[in-house]
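Hi team,

Below is the intake form for LacI family transcriptional regulator from Enterobacter asburiae. Please confirm the fields before the structure is written into the shared record.

FORM ID: S-0412
PROTEIN: LacI family transcriptional regulator
ORGANISM: Enterobacter asburiae
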Amino acid sequence: MSLTRKRRSTGKVTLADVAQLAGVGTMTVSRALRTPEQVSDKLREKIEAAVQELGYMPNLAASALASASSWTIAMVVPNLSEAGCSEMFAGLQQVLQPCRVSDHAGRIPASS
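The structure came back. Fields below:
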């Protein structure tokens, strides 16, 4: 019996895909994306080119599970359809995405 894990084909670009294209290991890709100062400029540029070519987007949920911590901001409002709420949430998402912070919106009904 083989002990290797089978990966489900989701069609999403993975860290392993980036590593393969860049000709480096997955840990090197992870290090280049998380702490770029620990990787040489030449290697980081090679990895960034692979990220761009493949359209890699980090999976924040998987990252949070793997590290047992997450950077998450929640927006809780009485009514998401209230004036300005959807625009505010869209703006929040736009600002948080480059910072690798996930966001959640929730609704708590107002007390009667």
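SUMMARY LINE: The chain has two domains: 1-57, 59-112.

Thanks, M.
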